[in-house]
């Protein structure tokens, strides 16, 4: 493909992504599905684009997209809402991941007869919901804040657990394997250090932004640079870069709500203005849109369609296990959800898309375990596609409920009685 065709293709994909995003409220098809299907047409179906061209690039694009989406999600959240809904999100995330891992383990073990460790690795890879998909969908559906916060916390926790558990069980194949206590210690260390780094960098960057950089050109780009440095630094220190960037966004977004006198007296700085917050949010939202577009198209380009078809019975069995696990987790954790109604719990049942972390971990496990789990990447692609298609049904149900509420007349007040 020559250079002219490449630029034409990139421009066409951006137009397609913009149209899919804007037409979501009418078509109910998430733009993620449109982009993945477009990638499949360009790659495996028409063979206009070769998967080999993007070898090694897809994980980079995916990680960058995840960083931007989590940061954008943090900028749009109120820390008091997060704390208020944290127990429900934490419990839901832990139960969804645990139930999904266990049920997938049984399905894979019974269907393929692989070892217990290999079956457990498959469950660990496919058990987590993708925040990179859930957050944009929730923004497009325009759900209430309690639902958005709870599901965002659930997805964030699930992805952290997936990375840690897959790494833990891959290490079991080597001498000096870690113990369960080591895993729990690593989890506490990663989450705690990530939040400390996020808050510290957030405070420092707010101070520099207001006193030195606010009137400079390109300070939005410099904020993006700080975001990447924070992610890289957290990863290098053994913390979770994903939690760090989410906490960084939360810190920047919620400084305006802190009492200005206390801030000036204690820390010697002013709280950032709403104007700064809106500018950061706008810049990173558009950058996130750009990166997400190319990432999900690449997912479709590199998908192995023949492998998906060959393992379709296994994919369908795992899909059923994911729905059952999510239903059980929602019912078991509903007592901890704050201010979430029955129809919103039903919507949560259908919001189980897999994405970036699933792909990266599937490739990592297939490489580490060899021929026994060579089927995992193709299976993971099938699960990603089908779970994203399930989001369509959930969004349609959400739209119908909103229309029913809008057309239902309000009850008339009871007549007053005279004594």
Tell me what you see in this structure.
- By secondary structure, this protein is mainly alpha-helical.
- It has one domain (28-402): Na+/H+ antiporter like fold (Up-down Bundle), CATH 1.20.1530.20.
- It is built from 18 helices and no strands.
- It has helices at residues 3-22, 24-27, 31-45, 58-75, 79-112, 116-126, 131-141, 145-171, 180-213, 219-236, 241-254, 260-267, 274-302, 305-310, 312-333, 342-350, 356-369, 376-407.
- Helix 3 packs parallel to helix 13.
- The protein is globular and about 60 Å long.
- Mean pLDDT is 77; it is low at 257-273.
Keywords, separated by commas or semicolons:
18 helices, Na+/H+ antiporter like fold, mainly alpha, 419 residues, single chain
| Residues in β-strands, percent | under 5%
- Main sheet summary: none
Low-confidence segments, given as residue ranges, are 257-273
Mean pLDDT: 77
Structural class: mainly alpha
Q: Tell me, briefly, the overall form.
A: globular
Q: What is the CATH topology?
A: Na+/H+ antiporter like fold
Describe the secondary structure blueprint for this structure.
Elements: H1 3-22, H2 24-27, H3 31-45, H4 58-75, H5 79-112, H6 116-126, H7 131-141, H8 145-171, H9 180-213, H10 219-236, H11 241-254, H12 260-267, H13 274-302, H14 305-310, H15 312-333, H16 342-350, H17 356-369, H18 376-407
